[in-house]
Write a structure and sequence with these properties.
Length: 152
């Protein structure tokens, strides 16, 4: 089936199998490997991207379901060579160790901050409850998001 969507501001049209998952479309067809594949069962959040501005787990959607819509992946956040405040926050506040969960955390946090300008620590933790990190203990991730919230 032919899909047509805007990915990180670029219009794409591709022929895909009906059963292709959105995460595999992004990584293997669009070449955007910043979106990670973890559990493939909607648990870990490593595959989180923005679909029409809202965070979705791209392992639980088919590419054909995203046709006609607008996607943003972690590669689409930096503008004119400048990191997005969320990316800067993860850098400055040491919000990652291995980095596997980081793109998904950043995209989930992007959704959160688009709905809530200055979330409390509890609201940040609730906003990220669909994203798992095996390394950091979460405290630095919360700080990274607070850093971004002060700059957006
Ligand atoms: S890979 Fe999608 S939620 Fe884990
Ligand atoms: S930094 Fe390793 S899983 Fe989160």
């Amino acid at each position: 089936m032919r899909v047509s969507m805007i990915v990180n501001g670029e219009q794409r049209q591709d022929e895909v199998e009906d059963r292709l998952l959105l995460v595999h479309y992004l990584r293997e067809v669009a070449g955007l490997t910043g979106t990670h594949v973890g559990c493939e069962s909607s648990l870990c959040g490593a595959c989180t991207v923005l679909l029409d501005g809202r965070a979705v787990k791209s392992c639980t959607l088919l590419a054909v379901q995203a046709s006609g819509r607008r996607l943003v992946t972690v590669e689409g956040l930096a503008q004119n060579g400048r990191l997005h405040p969320l990316q800067e926050g993860f850098w400055e506040e040491h919000g990652l160790q291995c980095g596997f969960c980081t793109p998904g955390m950043i995209m989930a946090a992007h959704d959160l901050l688009s709905r809530m300008k200055h979330p409390s620590e509890a609201e940040i933790r609730r906003g990220l409850e669909g994203n798992l990190c095996r390394c950091t203990g979460y405290q630095h991730i919360v700080k990274a998001i607070e850093y971004a919230a002060q700059r957006l």
